[in-house]
Design a protein that fits this description.
Bound molecules: NADP nicotinamide-adenine-dinucleotide phosphate
Number of domains: 2
Number of strands: 15
Distance between the termini: 26 Å
Number of helices: 13
Shape: globular
Helix content: 25-40%
Length: 335
C-alpha cells in the first residue's frame, strides 16, 4: 500500500514522499481495519513535517491528524462499526491507504455524507464548537472576535456562533472576503491592522467583546486584545505567524484580561467516550445536512503529495487542500 513518509524534519514539500509499504494485515480482537479514502492537509500537519509541532516522533514518521475511511474488516468483539461503514479516526498517522486501529478510535459517520466534508469532520468542527462552549460562558447577544476568520475553523465558528445567538467580528487579511463571510453569518468584518480596536468599536457600536479567538499569534494577539473588553478572555489556539502570542502587560493587569490556550485533544480528554461520540454525531448530522462545511480548493492524488503540500502552504487559497488515496475517489471529488 501507499503511505506518506517523512525521513527528516524540514520543508514539507521536500521531506515528504509517497512510499510503497506492506499492507496492515487483518484486525486482531478489538481492532478495525479501514481503507483511507481522503485526508485534508491542516496547518498542524505542516508544522508536523517541519518538526515544529508539539509531537515530534522518531523518523521515518507518517503525518496525518485526520481522514475519512471505509471499514474493510473488524476483529472479534467489535460491534459499533461493520465492513462498509464510513469512519473517521481519532488517532494520527492517517496519510496511508490503510489503517489498523483500536475499535474505540473509530467513529462511524452518516452513510452518504459528502466525502470531502467527512474527511474534515474530526478536528475543525469540534474545535470551533469547544472554542465557543469551553472558554467563556457566553449568552445570546454576546460578541466574540476572531482572527483567521476565513479559515475552516473561522467559518465554522461563524456558523456555530450564529446558531447560539452570539455575534461575531471576523478579522481577516483582505476586504474581498467580507461578502462571503457576511453570507455565512458574520455580523461584522474588519481587516487586521493597527487600528483594529477603533474599527471594531465602530462596528459593534461599543458593545463589550467578551472573547477573542486567536490563531495568528505574535503581535496579532495584542491587536485582538485591544478589541476585547476589560475582563475579557483571549484564547490562543494556533500560530499561523509561527510566533508566540504577544500580550500587552497593561491588558492583563489594569484591563484584567486573561490569555488562555486551547487544544482540541485536551478539550476532548475531559469528556467520556459517549460524550465525544455525541459531539461527533451532532456535528456529523450538521455536516451531512450541509449546515456546516469548509470550502475545498483542490484534491490531489497521493502520488502528488509534494505538490499538495506546496499548495497547502500558499496564501489566499480558496479552501482546503485534500488528498485522495485512489483514482476513483479523486474522480468522485472532481464531479
Ligand atoms: N488548537 C487546536 O486544537 C486547533 C485545532 C484545529 C485548528 N487549529 C488552528 O486553527 C488555525 C486554522 O486552522 P484551519 O485548518 O482552519 O486553517 P485553514 O483552513 O488551512 O486556513 C488557514 C488560514 O490562516 C490564514 N493565515 C495564514 N497565514 C497567516 C498569517 N501569517 N497571518 C494571518 N493569517 C494567516 C489564512 O488566511 P489567508 O486566506 O489570508 O491566506 C487562512 O485563513 C490554525 O492555526 C490551526 O493550527 C488549532
Amino acid at each position: 500500500m501507499k503511505q506518506v513518509l517523512i525521513d527528516r524534519y524540514g520543508p514539507p514539500e521536500e521531506v515528504a514522499r509517497c512510499a510503497e509499504v506492506p499492507d496492515v494485515g487483518v484486525p486482531a480482537a478489538g481492532e478495525v481495519v479501514f481503507d483511507v479514502l481522503l485526508f485534508p492537509i491542516n496547518p498542524a500537519d505542516i508544522s508536523f513535517c517541519r518538526g515544529t509541532y508539539r509531537l515530534k516522533p522518531a523518523l521515518p514518521a507518517t503525518p496525518g491528524a485526520e481522514c475519512v475511511g471505509r471499514v474493510t474488516a473488524v476483529g472479534a468483539g467489535v460491534s459499533h462499526v461493520k465492513p462498509g461503514d464510513l469512519v473517521i479516526n481519532l488517532q494520527r498517522e492517517n496519510w496511508a491507504q490503510q489503517r489498523r486501529v483500536k475499535a474505540d478510535d473509530v467513529i462511524a459517520v452518516t452513510a452518504g455524507m459528502d466525502l470531502q466534508q467527512a474527511a474534515m469532520l474530526r478536528i475543525n468542527p469540534p474545535t470551533a464548537l469547544l472554542l465557543l462552549t469551553d472558554i467563556v460562558e457566553l449568552k445570546p447577544g454576546d460578541w466574540v472576535i476572531q482572527n483567521v476568520a476565513n479559515s475552516a475553523v473561522g467559518r465554522l465558528v461563524i456558523r456555530l456562533a450564529r446558531q447560539r445567538g452570539l455575534k461575531t467580528v471576523s478579522v481577516v487579511r483582505r476586504e474581498s472576503l467580507f461578502t462571503d463571510l457576511r453570507r455565512l453569518g458574520a455580523d461584522a468584518c474588519v481587516v487586521d491592522g493597527p487600528d483594529l480596536a477603533e474599527q471594531v468599536r465602530a462596528q459593534t457600536k461599543g458593545a463589550p467583546v467578551r472573547l477573542g479567538l486567536d490563531a495568528v499569534s505574535g503581535r496579532a494577539t495584542a491587536r485582538l486584545s485591544s478589541a476585547v473588553s476589560d475582563g475579557g478572555v483571549i484564547c490562543n489556539y494556533g500560530s499561523m505567524s509561527g510566533e508566540d502570542p504577544v500580550m500587552p502587560r497593561g491588558a492583563l493587569t489594569s484591563g484584567g484580561q486573561a490569555l488562555v490556550g486551547f487544544i482540541l485533544g485536551r478539550g476532548l480528554a475531559r469528556r467520556s467516550l459517549d460524550e465525544i461520540r455525541a459531539i461527533y454525531a451532532d456535528l456529523g448530522r450538521q455536516v451531512a445536512e450541509g449546515t456546516l462545511s469548509a470550502p475545498v480548493d483542490r484534491v490531489y492524488p497521493i502520488e502528488e503529495i509534494k505538490a499538495a503540500l506546496a499548495h497547502a502552504q500558499q496564501e489566499e487559497r480558496s479552501g482546503k487542500i485534500l488528498v485522495a488515496l485512489s483514482a476513483p475517489v479523486r474522480q468522485s471529488c472532481l464531479r
